[in-house]
Amino acid sequence: xxxxxxxxxxxxxxxxxxxxxxxxxxxxxxxxxxxxxxxxxxxxxxxxxxxxxxxxxxxxxxxxxxxxxxxxxxxxxxxxxxxxxxxxxxxxxxxxxxxxxxxxxxxxxxxxxxxxxxxxxxxxxxxxxxxxxxxxxxxxxxxxxxxxxxxxxxxxxxxxxxxxxxxxxxxxxxxxxxxxxxxxxxxxxxxxxxxxxxxxxxxxxxxxxxxxxxxxxxxxxxxxxxxxxxxxxxxxxxxxxxx
Length: 243
Fold this sequence. Notes:
Blueprint: H1 3-10, E1 18-23, E2 36-40, H2 41-44, E3 50-52, E4 54-55, E5 58-59, E6 69-71, E7 84-90, H3 97-100, E8 104-106, E9 123-125, E10 132-137, E11 143-144, E12 150-157, E13 163-169, E14 177-178, E15 180-181, E16 191-197, E17 203-213, E18 236-242
Parallel strand pairs: 11-18
Antiparallel strand pairs: 1-2, 1-7, 3-6, 4-5, 8-9, 10-12, 12-16, 13-14, 13-17, 15-16, 17-18
């Protein structure tokens, strides 16, 4: 179910600024603030923002947020409120702890969607997922057998434009070549990639992987410093050895 259909059925006033969402889950410590999040109206009314009651054709499992949870494709999971119990629209900025005090990054430090009503000159809420990649095989520090076929495999994703390319290097980033991409399952879906590894000569392989989105965003070489360590999407590297 689209969140916007629920909001339109209830009626949204012209001065609506944010949608505040509350879940039934609670913290272990009584002094921990209630977990509530808000969304800007434009993201709440986006056709891709959903209230999910099922997963893979079956009722949503408890640990996935039953009986209902919010799905905000392309945005970080802090907005995907589980065990959804309350939705309210308000004309002013929501000042709950999990918006004004947590999950924030330095203003202007990263690309991605803005949350203007929650932004200050110093910090802004983390919003959109940045382009990233993950190698699933071989494992870091794996030893490959000389002259035996070996393949690098993994997944890449971004905040919703889709993956355009994944490049790999086996010399620490001096030279790059394109990996083969798996099936495109949609702009919000992870996309698989694979590439053959040269095992004809013994010695180390300094593997690096970088993904590029259809929006032109590419994994950076270095982590952008921020106090909470969010958006660690720097180029992935791992050491292998042919022996």
